[in-house]
Amino acid sequence: NSKGVEGATAAAHALSLPAEAYGNDAQLEVMWAMKAYNHAEVYFNLISSVDPKFLKLTKSDDMIYTKFREDFPDFDIKILDAELLKSPEAKEKWRPFCNHFEHLVEDFNYGTLLRLDCEKDYTEENTIFATRIQFFAIEIARNREGYNSVVYNTSAKTKRQKKEQS
């Protein structure tokens, strides 16, 4: 069901527009979901391969991390409570934080998949939809505070065991 270069170009253009531009086009929702899934897969492979403490996700990591911990000093990033991201009260609290990065982080408000429990992979039960800036804030904090090290260490241990067996 390939639409060739024209279809890919149209899809790329469509995905570059903000979500509000669409309404409920089912085909676009599928493309958004695929783009979000591909992003999640790349990110998980990255934190599985490179020690997350050394990762830089954006050119504004320091600013994002500092502002996140100023605005959300006690936010539990190990296992996220979806209500603290999605409830009407949470959205009111997150809105000023997110808008702060409107001109600093490209596509700051795009939909992205976020793991609830940072020690687990992306699964239907362990994934929620968040904005890109929420993803960056939480994942930068998880990387810097050592929570994503479990993923890296588990992956490194599995690779070592496979090497020893072969």
TrEMBL record:
Segments passing through the bilayer: none
Gene3D superfamilies the record matches: yst0336 like domain
Organism the protein comes from: Pygocentrus nattereri
Xref: Pfam families: PBDC1
One Gene Ontology CC term in the entry: cytoplasm
Segments forming domain Polysaccharide biosynthesis: 28-152
PANTHER family noted in UniProt: PROTEIN PBDC1
Protein name: Polysaccharide biosynthesis domain-containing protein
